[in-house]
């Protein structure tokens, strides 16, 4: 069986955690259990699937030093730095070029740096199941779990026919359907899409050439040439899901027996901290309750309101009502629009 390489994607801007966002505060450095960062957990899952020497991390130049500090066991040559942020299709293709330089016949597992999946062994078990199928190298695989709640902000996999125990075909995808539709999806047997992919290099190269020719012309894994910074910056910013995965004919889903959370909002982070017994800093509450603080705030008082989160960072302040975490991304967009360009 071919060797398995793992690509960890670690280059997001984390706008839903404004003001603790941007390259200085990537989401993967959050500690939802109070002890371990999300990227440490991703590294653990990767190393359960393959040898640490075959784990590659793709990130941006502004975050490379953070990756080196967070993952001291990562081989220096396995840190791939993007010349510009061009979404996940480009990042994965760049990582696959690195894999091909090491092993032209490898299988590749892609996972995000900033999600939770428990137990950690569940991904290893799913990868083992996928690779046990006789024709697995001709397909691209996604991974899903049963929804734990009607979460309108997650992506969903519409299952097709069962191909083997725990292996199903894919009918389609829906991204962030809203809570009403999410409840219906859960009843219909849809799966949460956990954002992991498995494929052979040959299959990825074929599908990249077919569906993303611009990316293939600059980042095709089988070609040794590296794109220039200018060529990389000219790539369309497109996600791997929209640009390739949703268009693939031979697509399979592996159903994991696991709990998943993408920790995508302040609400989700606080809930995980509370679950682990590591509650955020409590705010002084007068005529209210359930208020807390985060960031650089040394003392926060809330009068006449309940269930607020106050975040202070570098002169920026967020006052968030619990339950409205999805709306914070809009704040980040408006703030960026007001920031003068240098």
Name the features.
342 residues, alpha/beta, 5-stranded mixed beta barrel, 4-stranded mixed sheet, 17 strands, globular
Please write out the topology.
Blueprint: E1 4-9, H1 38-49, E2 55-60, H2 64-70, E3 79-82, H3 87-102, E4 107-112, E5 116-118, H4 121-131, E6 140-145, E7 155-164, E8 167-175, H5 179-187, E9 191-200, H6 201-211, H7 213-219, H8 229-233, H9 240-243, E10 251-256, E11 259-261, H10 266-275, E12 281-282, E13 284-286, E14 292-295, E15 301-303, E16 308-313, E17 316-321, H11 328-338
What is the topology, as strand order, of the major beta sheet?
Answer: 6-9-7-8-10
What is the count of helical runs?
11
Could you estimate the helical fraction of the residues in percent? Answer: 25-40%
List how many beta strands DSSP finds: 17
What's the helix-strand series?
EHEHEHEEHEEEHEHHHHEEHEEEEEEH
Q: Which structural class matches the secondary elements? A: alpha/beta
Descriptive overview:
This protein has helices at 38-49, 64-70, 87-102, 121-131, 179-187, 201-211, 213-219, 229-233, 240-243, 266-275, 328-338; strands spanning 4-9, 55-60, 79-82, 107-112, 116-118, 140-145, 155-164, 167-175, 191-200, 251-256, 259-261, 281-282, 284-286, 292-295, 301-303, 308-313, 316-321. The strands form 4 sheets. It has a 5-stranded mixed β-barrel. A 4-stranded mixed β-sheet has the order 12-14-16-17, with no helix packed on it. It starts with a strand and ends with a helix. It contains 11 helices and 17 strands. It is globular. It has 342 residues and is an alpha/beta fold.
